[in-house]
Design brief:
Number of helices: 8
Strand content: 15-25%
Helix content: 25-40%
Number of strands: 11
Oligomer: single chain
CATH class of the largest domain: Alpha Beta
Length: 265
């Protein structure tokens, strides 16, 4: 007997309405990308949902896509001119109180709260899709790549979040700049090797995952919530690299959402 997922995102629920709003954002992004011949691919949990559920993971409340760095810059230039009025391109440049290095497209007619939101800053807090930036990687053993990326991400993220004045955080504020500098130096040296893989830029690559280029390119298309969007060339291999056996559903206690509060107008 098939599992009934409507307990998570049944029609009319706040989560389902949020998912459909994020789908609207994705459709607009897809239009801009196709019109300007900008490659992108749906990524991580969004790709997993497309393969396993033909849409959102039923309990998921975010949507991820990815672009190579040069393509992201082209998209940003196009989005500034072509995004509809109800959507907002969120970068440090366009939203000065926004302190992350991750590009987002926000919906102006909704409100979302996550555990990392800082209400001392007045940045746009509507529903969004994340656009991750990818870059080429040398062929580095996972035993080196994963801890290196973890520390680069950790040091970078520490600077963007407000912390309590505890002894632990004071020590981190003193040590993380040094650790971050040394890790960045190691990364530059490793990049002298031939680049055969692709992964998120280091400050976004917490899990230290990289992929053979042929897993991603040439891009293909995949169905997601009744639409057709760009996807990695070998979605199965790509997902197994991240999740292992992604076809198995997680236990109920691990089916969690990222948000604390969602309002969809």
């Amino acid at each position: 007997m098939e599992e009934d997922f409507s307990i998570y995102n049944g029609e009319g629920t706040t989560l389902r309405r949020a998912q459909l709003r994020m789908l609207e954002i994705l459709k607009e992004v897809d239009l801009i990308c196709r019109r300007n011949k900008i490659p992108y691919w749906i990524d991580y949990g969004t790709l997993l949902g497309a393969v396993r559920h033909l849409g959102f993971i039923p309990w998921d409340d975010d949507l991820d896509i990815c672009m190579m760095g040069e393509d992201l810059q082209r998209f940003i230039a196009a989005a500034k001119k072509e995004l509809p009025e109800n959507l907002f391109l969120q970068l440090k440049e366009t939203d000065p109180s926004y302190n992350l290095s991750l590009c987002k497209i926000r919906d102006k007619n909704s409100f979302l709260v996550t555990q990392h939101d800082d209400f001392t800053r007045d940045y746009q807090k509507g529903l969004y899709i994340d656009i991750f930036e990818a870059t080429e990687y040398p062929n580095i053993p996972p035993t080196l790549l994963k801890p290196l990326m973890k520390w680069i991400k950790k040091c970078s993220f520490f600077k963007t979040v407000k912390h309590e004045m505890t002894a632990k955080n004071i020590m981190a504020s003193l040590s993380f700049p040094v650790i971050g500098f040394l890790c960045g130096l190691v990364w530059k040296i490793l990049n002298l090797k031939k680049k055969t893989k692709i992964g998120y830029i280091p400050k976004l690559n917490y899990y230290g995952v990289s992929y053979k280029k042929e897993m991603i390119f040439p891009l293909t298309e995949i169905e997601f919530e009744g639409g057709i969007f760009m996807a990695p060339n070998n979605a199965d291999a790509y997902l197994r690299e991240i999740y292992g056996d992604y076809t198995k559903l997680p236990p109920v206690e691990k089916r969690i959402t990222h948000s604390i509060f969602i309002q969809v107008k």
